[in-house]
Amino acid sequence: MALPATSEEILDWSWDDYAPHYESLATTELDEDGISDWLQRWSDLVELLSEVGTRMHIATTVDTTDEVARDTYHKFLEDVGEPAQAAEQQLKERLLASGLEPEGFTVQLRAIRAEAELFSEANLPLFTESKKLANRYDEVIGAQSIEWDGEEKTLTQLQPVMLETDRERREAVWRLVAERRLADRDTINNIWRELLEVRCRIAANADCADFREFCWKALQRFDYSPDDCLEFHDAIADVALPAAGRLLEQRRELLSVGNLRPWDLAVDTQGRDPLAPFDNIAELEAGCERIFNAVAPELGASFSTMREGGLLDLGNRKGKAPGGYCTEYHRQRLPFIFMNAVGVHGDVQTLLHEGGHAFHVFESAQLPYAMQREVGMEFAEVASMAMELLAAPYLAKSEGGFYSTEEAAR
């Protein structure tokens, strides 16, 4: 039973279209000779279905006001996503019961075993509900704006003001932003209360004591425990917190203020103008491409592919979801970067960071099975944080970046 080549061909598929492919996999006899072919068929199906879901999810974040995109995504989650997860569980159980251990699949078998043990069909609609609540939150944040200097501005677009040397302007914008956020306090609190209830039910359905235990298993944190984290927390409290306090006191003294306030935490302590690395998104893209090329031409070429392929949505605007992420079009094996740039240095760091995730996608594309390209959060951040560090020597214009030598040193 042949699958379409691209996800564009199946954007309107219902579960009835996907189901025969899962049924075929579920009824195929598993043995040493056929396991590679079976895994490839399963992987191809996962890639297509996941890419459809990714396309729909991205559409809800690039424009949180698009009700058609939101409703289409929610219908997909309910009508396709939920039965697909149940069908995936059947395939996982079949593979585990077979006792087969495909070559290069040891880590994936461990992950599949953990997923199968945690599965509860009662949680499928709750996973959908949690995603819907996330969309509601994005809609609230995406709609927030205030008037500043005679213009409507999103709250993110006011970040540069917090870097200005004029303390009165910083305080004024901080208070306006805080006031606007507080206007949505009840709405956001209600979303959180609903989400908390959903998460408690998810944990109970999976026979977990609480949602932390559920997440620990779901995120497949095999190598360390909650107690290890609590010990790390204590170390931060004992060592890092006092050091942070000393740095804040140093900042207060350099700024010559009686009390350090929230609007004093980002401004340059030497009274220098804020770094202004770019005036528009094209300059941000071009500058980071030069940096990636300086680190390694292969990285620059990959980023150029993203620019040419429409795989970037970097600028902030009203109605856009908050934050930033890098996701993957699983069938094409290509990354997509989403962020909210407004012209500050943090935007450069964010794109370098997300670029690391993107290059991870490019480099892992050679792996044959979709399951092999699923990476735990901790290791995924190795690529992104490493990219920030590898790019650091090239921030100056003389090295391909954005700044003078003096600015780069800041």
TrEMBL record:
This is Peptidase M3A/M3B catalytic domain-containing protein. Its cofactor is Zn(2+). One of its GO terms (molecular function) is metalloendopeptidase activity. GO terms for biological process: peptide metabolic process; proteolysis. The lineage of its organism: unclassified sequences, metagenomes, ecological metagenomes. Residues 164-400 form the Peptidase M3A/M3B catalytic domain. Gene3D superfamilies: 1.10.1370.30. Pfam families: Peptidase_M3. Keywords: Hydrolase, Metal-binding, Metalloprotease, Protease, Zinc.
